[in-house]
């Protein structure tokens, strides 16, 4: 079965890479995918790398909570 992908957000990482947050479907299961895409220099399209994570959607709330905890700690340390 082919993968269905809906990109939700794109975040620039540097001049050649970006992070894409997407909702995906694979073999009938739904996932959230956070992955680095890179410019290989041979076309205008960015390609996905192995650097990233895919989690079942039932784990999305836990991922968001972890990111919020990281933001809280970074703020507490004066990094943000």
Describe this structure in words.
This protein is an alpha+beta fold. The protein has one domain (4-76): Transcriptional Coactivator Pc4, Chain A (Transcriptional Co-activator pc4, Chain A, Roll). It is built from one helix and four strands; from the N terminus they run E-E-E-E-H. The chain has one helix spanning 60-76; strands at 4-12, 17-26, 29-38, 47-56. Strands 1-2-3-4 form a four-stranded antiparallel beta sheet, with no helix packed on it. Strand 1 (4-12) and strand 2 (17-26) form a beta hairpin. The longest helix is centred in the last third of the chain and has 17 residues, at 60-76. The relative contact order is 0.16. The model has no long low-confidence stretch (mean pLDDT 93).
Describe, in short, the structure shown.
The chain is an alpha+beta fold and 80 residues long.
N-to-C order of helices and strands: EEEEH
Count of extended strands: 4
- The N- to C-terminal Cα distance equals 43 Å
pLDDT under 50 segments (min length 5)?
A: none
Helical residue percent?
Answer: 10-25%
Sheet with most strands: 4 strands, antiparallel
Radius of gyration: 15 Å
How is the CATH topology named?
Transcriptional Co-activator pc4, Chain A
| Sequence of strands across the biggest β-sheet | 1-2-3-4
């Amino acid at each position: 079965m082919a993968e269905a992908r809906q990109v939700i957000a794109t975040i620039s990482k540097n001049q050649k890479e970006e992070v894409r947050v997407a909702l995906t479907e694979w073999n009938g299961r739904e996932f959230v995918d956070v992955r680095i895409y890179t410019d290989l220099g041979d076309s205008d399209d960015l390609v996905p790398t192995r650097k990233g994570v895919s989690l079942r959607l039932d784990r999305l709330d836990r991922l968001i909570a972890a990111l919020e905890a990281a933001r809280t700690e970074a703020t507490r340390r004066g990094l943000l």
